Amino acid sequence: MKVAVLGASGRAGSEITAELARRGHHVIAIARKPEAIVATQGVTAVEGDANDSQALAGLIGGVDAVISALHFDVPAHTLLSALKQAGVPRLLVTGGAASLEVAPGKILFDAMDLPEEWKPAILGGIAFLKDLRAESEIDWTFFSPAAFIEPGPRTGTFRLGTDQLVVDDKGESRISFADYAIAMVDELEQHRHPRARFTAAY
Length: 202
What we know:
It contains 6 helices and 12 strands. The model has no long low-confidence stretch (mean pLDDT about 95). The longest helix is centred in the middle third of the chain and has 15 residues, at about 120-135. It is about 30% helix and about 25% strand. The chain has about 200 residues and is α/β, with parallel strands linked by helices. The protein has helices spanning about 10-20, 55-60, 75-85, 110, 120-135, 175-190, and strands at about 1-5, 25-30, 45, 65-70, 90-95, 100-105, 105, 140-145, 150, 160, 175, 195-200.
């Protein structure tokens, strides 16, 4: 497939770009600083700003799907508008974990004692998912990571879930960026969660 990755120079974006290239997909790797993208066969680094939907549409035309690894300061309607202008049918999003359920009617955001300065970005992710759920034209998928996503090995072994936080027998919820990228590209290829959210953890 031909896939555009937004935020391709970041921690999640770089791992997703590498995983796509490893599997033989052609990647348009879009970032504000494309020089930070590792030169890899099958990867074309492009400078772009996702806040400009019209300009972004010009960069993603002709791809089969867009994977966004952006922070949530770019709202859902901006990305959805770009895809619609470009005629791209699928959007996969590196989501946040805060909206995952930890008990009936209770989400992770409500259960965590978070610094005030973190809350706007986290609430942006919750709002992003809400906006996607109102979208009917673009085939979207929102991929929430474990509660903790961090550098670590590429194992290929993890458990999937949908709207509930996945935890291990110690009550911990973790995944490496490398394994998160595997699960993201699996979803791209297998298309198990159309217009839905899913999650993964060890």
